[in-house]
Amino acid sequence: MAEAGFWVAWGLPSRGRETNALDVLRKSRDYLQAAARDGRIERFDTVILRPQSVELGGFFLIQGSTAQLDALRRDPGFETWVNQVQLVADRVAAVDAWVDTGIDEAISLYEDALREAGLSD
User: Fold this and answer.
1) Which domains does the chain have, with CATH numbers?
2) Quick check: 83 and 92 in contact, CB under 8 A?
């Protein structure tokens, strides 16, 4: 079971690149499916948000071990993929996350911070 996650989010497609954005989305899913099939990640989820008032269009939540995700981020293919997403979408962000078995670590760190701030016993 995964302990770590990596969230890659994107905003609305850049003006004039809407059809390119759809192509990059399809290629992104192929890239991540290959990474899962090859054991470079455990899994990923693709989320496209319904039309709404914020400028977040969707995200991928990539999951695996810390070692898998560290290796993925250093892979030239991954760096090229993120650059391709940035070329067609606004507000691209990549953020580390705790998932599944890593949640206990996140809770422990939060509890430690509360104690150090004098907000908990």
Assistant:
1) 4-116 (3.30.70.100)
2) no
Q: Are 3 and 101 in contact (CB under 8 A)?
A: yes
Mention every residue, 6+ apart, whose C-beta is less than 8 A from residue 105: 3, 98
pLDDT in tens, 82-109: 999 999 999 999 999 999 989 999 999 9
User: For position 12, what pLDDT does the model report?
Assistant: 87
As given in the structure block, the two tokens for residue 115 are 């104690």
CA 107 distance to own-chain centroid: 20
User: In percent, how much of the chain has pLDDT > 90?
Assistant: 84
For range 24-29, the mean pLDDT: 95
